[in-house]
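The instructor's notes for this session suggest beginning with a concrete chain rather than abstract definitions. Hand out the sequence below and ask the class to guess, before any prediction is shown, which regions might be ordered.
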Amino acid sequence: MPDITFDFAKLGPRDRYKLLSCIVVPRPIALITSLDEAGRVNAAPYSFFNAFSEDPGQIVLGLQHKPDGSPKDTTRNLRPSRPFVVNMVDEALAAKMSDCAIDFPPETSEIDALGIETRPGVLVPVPSIAAAPIALECRASVSLAFSATREILIGEVLGVIARRDLIDPDTLYVDSERYRPIGRLHGNLYCRQGDTIELRRPAYEDWLHGRSSAPKADR
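After discussion, reveal the predicted structure:
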């Protein structure tokens, strides 16, 4: 059966979104907390998100505008040099994360409406979500607009707040058995990280002699 090709120049934004969001999976979820001009805490989930640099520590976030071109709450809050927090989402926080996607009015804080407990920021004035297993305290650095409704924000990671049982402070080892982040698939579908495989990169000499290892089930 021949391959099928989708020419993005011939597809509308909705169809391009459907393809990309179904193909590029799973995606980590950033539950962003930020402050509006009145000091209200906004919380919004984003799955067009990832880390891409350690020197300096940086994350990238895909921001959306409303169909009329006006910015959503988070987009409006995250102008260059503005602080924000990336709250990572595990299985226990998943339902609250989904509720944060409700289309609340701009003057309504998701944190207040949903009764979400927060903790004060350490390096930034923005609170993080108390139930988040790990939170990245960030500062917006660069924003690039690509259309009337889409832009990319690069944020500098200033520090990490983690639940005490998740990261060894000496080795920085993250306990993957305890840290159970969920991944975004598409539509209403998410995935757990209940099954992993280990792939060790062989040394060049081992590869020359056919000693590369096969995938090994982790759990």
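Then share the key points. The mean pLDDT is 92. The chain is about 15% helix and 30% strand.
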